[in-house]
Records
---
Amino acid sequence: MLLIGVVFSACAGKTYAQEKPVELKTVTISVPKKALKETARGSTLDLTKIPDAKFWTLADALQQIPGIEVDEATGKITYMGKEVAVLRDGLAVAGFDQQIANTLGTGSAAAYDKIELNLFDLRTERPTVSFVATTYQKGYFGNVGTALGSNSSTFNASLSLSKKKHLFNIIPFASLMYAPKSKQNWETDYYHENYQEFRKTEQQRNHSGSTSLGINDSYFIATAHTLNTSFNYSLNNSVYDMLSTNEQYQAGVLSSRANMLLKNSGPAAKNNVMKANVSYVYKPKASAYSSKRFDVSFELERKNTSNATDAISTTLAGEFKPHSNYQSINSGGERGMYALTGYEYRHKKAGNFEAVLKYFNRTLYKAYDYTYQANAAGADSTIFQDNNITYNYAAFLLSWDRAFRDFSMRMVLKEDYSHDYIQNLKGRDRVGFMTFSPYLSVLRNIKTGSLRFEAQYSQRRPELMSMSTIINYGGQYSISGMQTIGNPALKPAKILDLSGTVNTVVSDVGIVATGRFVHTLDAISQYRLAVDSTIVQTYRNLSSSDQYKTDVSVNFFLLPRLTGQLSSNLSFVNFHLTENKVQKTLQWGEALSFGYTPSPNLRLKTGLSYNGGTSFQSKIPARFGSNFSAAYVRGKLSFSCLISNFHQPYFINENIVKADGYQMHSYNSSRRLIGSFNVSYRFGKISRSNDSARDIVKDDM
Amino acid sequence: MYKKLVLSVLILALGIPALSQAQESVVVGTSRGSGMAPTKVFFQKVVLLLDAETMKPLSGLKFSIARSGTIITAGKTNELGYGLVRFGMNNYYSKVEINMNDNKYKNPEWKEDRNSIDYKPLDSMINFRSKKDVVDTVKVLLRKVSKAKH
């Protein structure tokens, strides 16, 4: 509460004041409560306290939390560069995370009251954001929305029914993506053999679709007991056609040419994901000083993938090219079982204690079926390879946190063990890793904002799943001697991650500055190496890498209802590839954006960005990006439209790769302009919120 | 040579997804800042509510301020009929509408904020002269609405 004495003279109505000065007595005004609350545990953004929030898309709302970055194109949400898991009301509801990812740029934030960020969630071992809806009356509520765009169209809905002891929810979703036509050119120079390769491709059709249905129910058995069940099933299909020309020159003389028409398709019937989750929460009545909570969660997952490629080629007269006429089928199946149990004890003086024990079991099956023309006479040959991987993981996590007056802190300890059995990786078929990770988070509230510091030491096991692809053509085409899969000396990477955030206000300008330093020892990297003009894909431990990253955002009001934002980011990485070999990369980006609210129902936004730099063994030329968006809200209906890159509807992108033994210059051209129009409708009133239960997000892959 | 050819096919087959991902990150810029503009600067406006017939100040009256049918803020008059209205940088408009017990602005938060005697403004439009004046006063004349009509 703030007391403001407003004293002034005023000429009031003749009849009562008779021109006398009037003194307005002290007026009591309540200062609007802060929308953002920060502790060592995380941040909570209360959307109900922000008048503009009703115009915000999910991406806009998330971006208000210092340290969070959103990529609408990929649906990825990151906190200080770490990938974030998405929950609904503190629960991992099957299908909900996918729905949020798909509607980041179009979904309305008005459907939620709060967004909670937990910097280190014991369930997921990474940051989580939870979209929270508060309690209202019983009955139906939900939202329906559709987006029509130049590159994709989506339909999304959420229908809920709150009745007696159940909160029932259905989430249907459908999307169709149609990438614009594009042309690519590659020019590769292999230094050692005076050998060049020119490749041109034209992507003619590139469509993909996805439909999913999620059903979930929260059953409030009694005051202290809640049972949550959720089920999600999704179908995905994709298809693309590509025309390509491949020319090879030996010492400047054309030695080979092939024109290829390639068709790839992944039918929905063979590409599907099923997830089922059951969790139970026991939360006895809290006393004045303490509360506790116990929960158990169990999840099953099934995933099938399959896509077929058909390639038909024509070559130079008299030239035979193996494998330029082929059919291949890549298929896989994944089965997962996950169990988790957690206990939480909160005490006013002693702080909050949490313990989580979890176990995962996952099996993966991969198959590669390849039929190709083996000789000029047209005889076919078939290669069939498959692989089975079994993965087991167990982890124990402990946490303590406590908030003092202007200061709060949190500590987490984690110990885990994982074991893989890889059927077809001879000599390396059984691998076990034990890792230990401590974490510390400290937050100091200052008068104008907060200072945050996080430190984590972790060990990361190799991602063995992706190392299981083995392709060997045998006979004269054998590449077994050239290809290295895995590395006998592969060991867990050791990572020290330090980060800090300053969130402050300096003369009515909001500043968010973040800094992050990541030191990685024994970094595991997918490394491309060229030996005798042959590229070998391998995994190995780099000796070390150091990453320095800073982001500064400045937010201000230029005029009432006109906001501006300036942001700048820099990322510098020093890779120590070997003792003698070092590679440095630098990426930078600058952005300027404005938001204006001409009337409470209309919000306009425009922005300009400029970024470029270097990445591992390649260069990213600097380029501009632009966007404009408008959102209009009328009652429960909202409309929005978005146009990106209007300054450059069509463009040519260039990339240069300089690696050991070869250099590749590529450029591709495609439409860059993107537009979309969205409509959504909310109905009913949001019902009671769930009690959050612990759930599982698989962190292993 | 065959090794190179095999490799070309491999790259062709494996290179496509990598390429499309690279393109995607190019098409949409990734530079985005974080945080929000502080709304620390407030505009304080005072409205004086008078009975149109007697020209006497009306004390203890609750009112809301709206723009284009959306409630922005609310206030209550003191014993001399003055009511202070505060706007943030995010919701200040120089032209607003004043509402007395008007139910068309359905907002659950304001449900309890109703006056016992029903008044209606003669002219509901309020025009704040200048945003530079942090405190200024606008007179609003109100007429009592007979209860029989409601």
---
Amino acid sequence: MVDVLNRRQMLAAGAMGAAIAVLPHPASAQTQDVDALARELMGKVTPKEGKVRLKIKEVPESGVNEPIGVSVDSPMLPNDYVAAIHVLAEGNPYPVIASWYLTPRSGRAEVNFRLRLAKSQVVRAYAVTSDGQVWVARQEVKVTIGGCGG
Amino acid sequence: MPNSDRVKVRIPAKAKKGEIIEIKTQVSHDMETGQRKDASGKPIPRRIITKFTCAWNGEPVISADWHQGVSANPFSSFFAVASASGKIKLTWWDETGEIYEYTHDIVVE
């Protein structure tokens, strides 16, 4: 009995060890990748937190067709408006989802659409203002049914 | 070009000058990611809409670059300042070269 228990414990410990050993470090590698994509879109900028409101469910029913809304505090005047809104999903096969380009004729700095989420991850929304400032909002979403097919 | 039968919109017919109106649109399209396989295991080729634009009497209101993370049958809603009576033109570019268009007549008073 004692032997069996020990063996189980050892197996369990071994399995855990193996699991830890094969766990890659996707968080750091992937985040870097996403940061590189963000730089391609917006140049080498340091985004500030704030101004951007990101509406997306923390626990969506599935990742196939998830509503997302991004709005930004802006008067949308010819000399002060939001010129771009970029949405990136850190854990998707291709993290850039959509880039929206607004004008003062947009009237309101808000877009709503639907996106696919491959797995649980962090979604980022960036806003680039007409004077070149970059603002960001982040939201963690827990996805149980991924939406990238396959 | 006639209005594409793939496109559904919800846009007011009339607006006051200077009013901010909401434009809601949906286009029927698979937005095939290229990541999926068919029943026999063969990859289904990617085919998505990569670009969307909205113009009011020829002046750009908003545009977008879309990637494979945009859901099938893409829905969008956004806003526009009612400037003058005329035409709101929506255009979607499929990466195969196909273009879907929709023109909405609006009266601004």
